[in-house]
Amino acid sequence: MKCFHYFKDRSKSREQRSAPIFKYQSKSDISAYENERVTKSSSSANSVRGDTNKSSGSTTSPRSVTELYEEKAQYLRVFSFSELARATNNFDRLLKVGEGGFGSVYKGKIKPVGGKGDCSVVAIKKLSTGGFQGHKQWVAEVQFLGVVDHPNLVKLVGYCAVDGERGIQRLLVYEFMKNKSLEDHLFNRAYPALSWERRLQVMLGAAQGLAYLHEELEVQVIFRDFKASNVLLDEDFKPKLSDFGLAREGPTGEDTHVSTAVMGTNGYAAPDYIETGHLTAKSDVWSFGVVLFEVLTGRRSLERYRPGSEQKLLNWVKQYPANSRKFGMIMDPRLENQYSLSAAKLVAKLADSCLVKNAKNRPKMSEVVETLKQIIHVSVEVTSPDRSFEPIEDDPIEEKPTKQIGASESVKRRMAHLAKLSEHVDGVGRRKFMIMQRQVT
């Protein structure tokens, strides 16, 4: 099993084998996990994240994810296969809570270290046996989740790596996310629809998680597979990014991108990445823009069963721009008109900025975070009771009895009045506005 040479001898002490350690034959060698990473420029080994020693004028290169991982590896728990089998009642199908290309995810209960105390509920992901690509993704998840620490990233509790009579076993143990994924609540009618306010908060949390990966770590991390199914929701519907199997380190120094095999999910990958294989943090920004439109519309990025003009979400929403009167036609019917129209238009404009063709012109995720905070503020102000508006039909239109007004002029004035109020109309009031508008015209 030469492809699994990353792991230390299992006969060594528990402290030494607390996590997979990646070994190299020489400094020029790279692991199988990294062998697709080729940067555009190799002229600089220094990163803008490096610390500069002013007295000596030297610059310290940032540590790689592998180096950071080896520093923090002792915090991960190592499980035996038998422990995780017991935790899931031998991987009972009734405890299966998810399934993907990596393998199956089960709900389980694990005992604390030492065996004393209450059991913890966890999610246990079991790699499908066979397949080197699956192993590479398992390694990437262990590495990246062993390094990152943020409220909007799922927590990795530990792992299991066993090569024995049962074959190759690779498992990951995460904190359990009670409310499954954003995808489930947007597209699965078996789950209650997310409210407008909750949708905004979920996207804000997801944006904060991406901003942390892109801008707040010693090494930049590109998620590479941002989509609704990878945004998990805890018992309070707090979002956490999951599935780091495709994550990659970002460019360093003077490098502008990393070149990789194009991987991800159809409908979410940025066109510049698909065309060139050049991966940057702005590739994640594009994917975030796609999910923003999914949150607005309640539609998937790609739905083959719809009419041709509506199958691709991004093509369809272009017909209803945020500055048009027909914009409301794209909004998710499951919201039942309970949302701020002005805030929804701002979300659409933010999504459009994330989907700009030229990657350099897309905003950074930290900028997206600030914009979403402003949008949430606008939404709260518009929908708060002390800022509410009376229904349209109860709002009298001032008319001067001493002056006769032609029918056409009266219509124009009523339309202008309604248009002025339309930005503030939400919920049932907006429906009444649309009815009134049809009656006037």
TrEMBL record:
GO terms for molecular function: ATP binding. Residues 33-65 are annotated as: Disordered. Residues 91-380 form the Protein kinase domain. Its main location: membrane. The lineage of its organism: Eukaryota, Viridiplantae, Streptophyta, Embryophyta, Tracheophyta. It comes from the Eukaryota. InterPro entries: Kinase-like_dom_sf, Plant_Ser_Thr_Prot_Kinase, Prot_kinase_dom, Protein_kinase_ATP_BS, Ser-Thr/Tyr_kinase_cat_dom. This is Protein kinase domain-containing protein. PROSITE patterns: PROTEIN_KINASE_ATP, PROTEIN_KINASE_DOM. Residues 40-64 have a biased composition (Polar residues). ATP binds at K126. The keyword Nucleus does not apply. The keyword ATP-binding applies. Keywords: ATP-binding, Cell membrane, Membrane, Nucleotide-binding. GO terms for cellular component: plasma membrane. It is found in: Cell membrane. It comes from Cinchona calisaya. It holds the Pfam family PK_Tyr_Ser-Thr.
